[in-house]
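Colleagues,

For the teaching module next term, I've prepared a clean inverse folding example: a structure given as tokens, and then the sequence designed for it. I'd like students to try predicting residues themselves before seeing the answer, so please don't circulate the second half yet.
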């Protein structure tokens, strides 16, 4: 067997040398691997929901009709959290990036924290409420600086009358209240239930505004009241079309409080940066518009109770000729009037009157200050000169010689 020569001049037999070379090569390979081999990619977040279609090229009719930007000089909803109890809300769309908080999932996917929306409904709702400005698309939400708290309760159908679902929605309402929601959007319809009703009462007692869909008509089925919209204190929303008429699929009832755009709806898709188009619309989308306006009101008037927020919404809406009806309630929501109007009478003072406006900064303030001080100093000097005038005149008459005493010091 051939021997191998060591670096110190001694030899290794062939078997030992082979083992040595194997060990050396393995060590070098391991070292190179740590330097040259790229780390394994982190597990990608699950892709939730459809990617959608190309973005709109012009503002939607709903945006042009409501014109929420008219009130943005007063507020854009900063500091307000809107809980969206729905199918989840994607946090990856450009409209919602940085707007979606960690939430909860009551539908067997707790690790997703409510941020996985398989059907796109909740994401579109969230975009209507709080979609960001400045994404390069002519689209934003009603309250673009509000935050979204996603709470996933419905995997697919936004109208669910299965046993157990109402109680689950009630649990979601309580969770949202306990985790900082100022407004809760309920673009869903379910059955009457004691646990759900108690959860609504709990939210109202905590000062949280509840906005819910009045419901949509289904073929071969009579109109059924939409819960939780029917409950006292919940703002029930109907759908209105481009012409200002009641959308035919929107359920009517005496419990309907207000209307909002509910046909030909556009909003963000959950699977990327695309958009979903909902020509059939529905009261769930109308609900989102009203929730966005409620967020603006809460930001501008944090002292108002849920009852007072509802009063402000309904009394500033574009009322139908009869003032209120079962189709659209008090009419189309009006963001600008809802935030800025003074409501009330002399005997019943306004609710949520606008605070005193902050005076604009005066760019010439320092020049004015300098001018005032110059005037003051000038006045003082003028006074001094006037006081010295007789003294100076006397001094000139005497040739500035000291005067004599009339009485000697030793007298």
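(Answer key — instructors only)
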């Amino acid at each position: 067997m051939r021997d191998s020569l060591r670096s110190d001049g001694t030899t290794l037999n062939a078997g030992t040398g082979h083992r040595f070379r194997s060990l050396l090569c393995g060590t070098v390979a391991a070292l190179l691997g740590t330097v040259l081999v790229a780390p394994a990619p982190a597990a990608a977040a699950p892709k939730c929901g459809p990617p959608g279609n190309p973005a709109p090229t012009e503002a939607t009719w709903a945006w042009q009709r409501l014109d929420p930007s008219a009130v943005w000089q007063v507020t854009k909803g900063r500091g307000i959290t809107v809980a969206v109890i729905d199918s989840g809300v994607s946090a990856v769309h450009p409209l919602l990036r940085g707007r979606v908080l960690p939430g909860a999932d009551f539908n067997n996917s707790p690790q997703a924290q409510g941020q996985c929306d398989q059907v796109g409904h909740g994401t579109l709702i969230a975009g209507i409420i709080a979609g960001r400005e400045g994404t390069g698309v002519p689209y934003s939400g009603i309250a673009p600086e509000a935050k979204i708290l996603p709470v996933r309760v419905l995997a697919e159908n936004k109208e669910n009358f299965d046993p157990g679902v109402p109680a689950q929605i009630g649990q979601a309402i309580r969770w949202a209240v306990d985790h900082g929601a100022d407004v809760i959007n309920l673009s869903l319809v379910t059955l009457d239930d004691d646990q759900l009703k108690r959860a609504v009462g709990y939210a109202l007692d905590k000062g949280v505004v509840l906005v819910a869909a009045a419901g949509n008509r289904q073929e071969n089925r009579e109109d059924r009241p939409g819960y939780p919209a029917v409950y006292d204190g919940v703002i029930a929303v109907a759908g209105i079309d481009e012409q200002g008429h009641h959308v035919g699929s929107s359920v009517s009832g005496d419990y309907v409080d207000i209307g909002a755009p509910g046909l030909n709806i556009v909003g963000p898709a959950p699977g990327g940066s695309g958009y979903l188009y909902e020509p059939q619309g529905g009261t769930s989308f109308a609900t989102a518009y009203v929730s966005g306006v409620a967020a603006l009101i809460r930001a501008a008037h944090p002292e108002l109770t849920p009852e007072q927020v509802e009063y402000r919404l309904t009394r500033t809406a574009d009322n139908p000729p009869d003032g209120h009806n079962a189709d659209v309630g008090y009419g189309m929501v009006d963001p600008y009037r809802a935030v800025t109007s003074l409501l009330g009478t002399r005997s019943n003072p306004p609710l949520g009157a606008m605070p005193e406006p902050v005076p604009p900064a005066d760019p010439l303030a320092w020049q004015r200050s300098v001018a005032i001080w110059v005037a003051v100093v000038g006045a003082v000097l003028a006074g001094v000169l006037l006081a010295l005038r007789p003294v100076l005149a006397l001094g000139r008459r005497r040739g500035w010689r000291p005067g004599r005493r009339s009485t000697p010091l030793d007298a």
